[in-house]
Amino acid sequence: MKMRIIVVAITIALAAVSSSATAQQTDPPKQSLSAKIKQKYLERRAKFVSRVKDIYFAVGCKVLPGEAGARSLNRRDADLAKIRDQAVFDLKEDEELVEAAKQEGLERAAKPGACDYYRRHPEAAEAMRRAMDDDAKQ
Of 24, 34, 41, 134, which is least packed with CB atoms within 10 Å of its CB? Predict the structure, then answer.
């Protein structure tokens, strides 16, 4: 009887140790390919939407001509389309985000004194113009 108790105690101790060791060795689940593609797309889309706001702010401030926004958007949209082809996303949501970004940029430019930014930072206006010229060349 005493021997059985010792054997049972040893078995329970070994089971507890091996299960805790196994639990520590498990790796976190790896991200699936589709999740990686979606994450990459969402990051690029966020950068794109931010860029749209900046472009239309510059257009509203008359730093860039009106057609500069359309040229840049076409180029950037082509880049996003490459990623979009790899996975299924809500294109209507993307269009709504871009339209909202355009409107936000123009509204920001319409605020009194907002365009003074480009007067205080002429290098920013020049950088914006250079980026538009580079986009037009590509």
Answer: 24
Rounded Cα–Cα distance for residues 107 and 59 (Å): 11
DSSP 71-119: HHHHHHHHHHHHHHTTS---HHHHHHHHHHHHHHHHHHHHSTTTTHHHH
| pTM of the entire predicted model | 0.61
- Per residue in 88-118, pLDDT tens? 556 777 788 888 988 999 899 999 998 899 8
Residues in the chain: 138
What's CA 98's distance to the chain center, in Å? 14
- Residue partners of 109: CB distance under 8 A and separation at least 6: 56, 57, 58, 59, 60, 61, 115
pLDDT at residue 61, rounded to an integer:
87
